Amino acid sequence: MIALLAGFAASPWMRTALSYGAIVLAVLLFLLSLRRSGERAGRLAERLVTTEKANDVQRRMLEAAARRPRDHHELAERLRDGEF
Length: 84
Hints:
- This protein is mainly alpha-helical and 84 residues long.
- It has helices at 2-9, 12-67, 72-81.
- The protein contains three helices and no strands.
- The protein is rod-shaped, with a radius of gyration of 34 Å.
């Protein structure tokens, strides 16, 4: 049985078919990895956008906290001057 399979695989047309099959398999694996890397890049881009939004919100909160009056006297002064 093994001798029959070895003789079948040793035929020239079978070697040609196997080599074409190996090429097709390599191309398919390359395309699959390319697709997965594209998906990964898309997820990274989404994460970057989300991080930028979060950083912008935090920056605005810090700026608002820095402009906050320190005590009620400063608040009253701002209200009197119409700045608040």
